[in-house]
What does this fold into?
Amino acid sequence: VPAGTLALLLGTLLWAPWRALHGAPHGAPLAELSGDQDFQVFLRKNLEFTRKIKGDVAALQRMVCDTFQLCKEEELLLARQDLAITQVPLEQCHSHTFQVEACFSQIRDGLRTYHGSLAVVLGLLPGHAGMVETVQLDAANLSSNIQQQMEDLGLATVSFPTESRGLLPAFSSHFQHQVGGFFILANFQRFLETAVRALRHLARL
It folds into this structure.
C-alpha cells in the first residue's frame, strides 16, 4: 500500500470530519514504520501502558467525585472561568495534518506537563498519595519510552510553544483547588483518550 494512502487513511481514522481530508500529509514514512517489528512491539506495549494510566486517572476522578461531590463538568463551568487551566494540545494526533513525529512529540510533552500538574491532585487527595504518585511515575516513564523510541527509529523530535504550560495555577480558596484538581484530571483523561486512539490506529496499519 503506498505511504500516501496509509497516511491519509490514518488521518481519516483519527478524527472527524473524515470527508474534509484532501491529499496525504507529509511526515515519517508510515509504510516503512508500520512494517517495522520493533515499532509494532513499541506500539502494543505503550498502547496498553497508556490504557493503564487512563484507567488510573479515571479512578482518581471517581475519588474526587466521592470526596468533594465534584462529578459533572457542566456544573462547574462557572467556577472554572476563574482558573487558568487549559487542555494540553494534541491536535497533531487527530488532524488531517497528522505526522508521526509531531504526534509523538505532543504526547511526550503533554505527559510531562500532566506529571507536574498532578501535584494539584496530590494536595487534594493525601490519603491516596501512593496512587497519584504512581500515575506521575507512569506518565514520566511513558514520556521517556516515547522519546527513546523516537531516537531509536530516527524520528525527529518536534518542539512546540510552551508558554504558561506546566505552570501550576494559583488558587484563592480550597474550593478552587478542588475544582482545579477536577479539571486537571478531566483534561488528562481526554488527552489520554486521544493518545490511545492514535497509538491504536498506528498499530493497525
